[in-house]
Specification:
Length: 217
């Protein structure tokens, strides 16, 4: 069995990480007993603990999609397609008998059918919304994706040398970092920023809009 999920799809900073967990049916039944569940319902410390335990039950797989690739997909209105291609690569890498996936398409069954076609996979695919909460193996995949995404954000913060928050547009620390980065006219926006995101564009427009104070100078 292979579970699939992602982390960072809505983030304005950092990569979109696709996670997979591949194990046999016996190991899949043990996941819930060790505390595996949707990564969003776990503390960061608990996610890290479980991430360390997962290899004893199966294989962790991942794909990291850089902000530049995400931006390019968004501009072509094919972010779902980019995610689908990454998931298909994980299916081909694992070679499972069955796939369970948290669907990013509004039509979950359509996403499952497209995934099977893209991966040339002939086994059953269970594609549903909130699969990370309902299916333990998808919960395990969500832990893989979230832990690797958290680590990527930590590396990015170390590189820029200032707090960047969680990377999501709802985080005031992230928005403040974007303002500082965009206001620094001496350099382009860092590679970790998703330039196509509405939050990024709003910050840039606000800095470019003349104020009454500017006209008074």
């Amino acid at each position: 069995m292979l579970g699939l999920d992602e982390a960072g799809r809505g983030s304005v900073l950092g990569p979109l990480v696709l996670g997979g967990f591949h194990c046999d049916a016996r190991a899949a039944r043990e996941l819930r007993s060790i505390g595996v569940r949707d990564s969003k319902l776990l503390t960061r410390a608990k996610r890290e603990e479980l991430f360390g335990r997962l290899p004893s039950l199966g294989s962790c797989l991942s794909r990291e999609l850089a902000p530049r690739s995400v931006d390019a997909a968004v501009r072509r209105h094919r972010l779902n397609g980019l995610e689908l291609e990454g998931f298909a690569a994980l299916v081909q890498e694992a070679g499972p008998a069955r796939v369970e996936v948290d669907a990013c398409d509004v039509r979950a069954e359509r996403f499952g059918a497209r995934l099977a076609e893209a991966a040339e996979f002939r086994g059953p695919v269970e594609s549903r919304h909130r699969a990370d909460r309902d299916l333990p193996i998808v919960g395990a995949a969500s832990i893989v994706a979230k832990v690797l995404r958290d680590r990527a954000i930590a590396r990015l913060e170390s590189q820029v040398g200032s707090p960047i928050g969680s990377g999501y547009p709802s985080d005031p620390r992230t928005v403040e970092y974007l303002r500082r980065a965009a206001a620094d006219r001496s350099r382009d926006l860092p590679d970790g920023v998703r330039r196509s995101w509405a939050t990024t564009q709003r910050v840039i427009r606000a800095l470019e809009t003349p104020t009454l104070e500017t006209f008074g100078r």
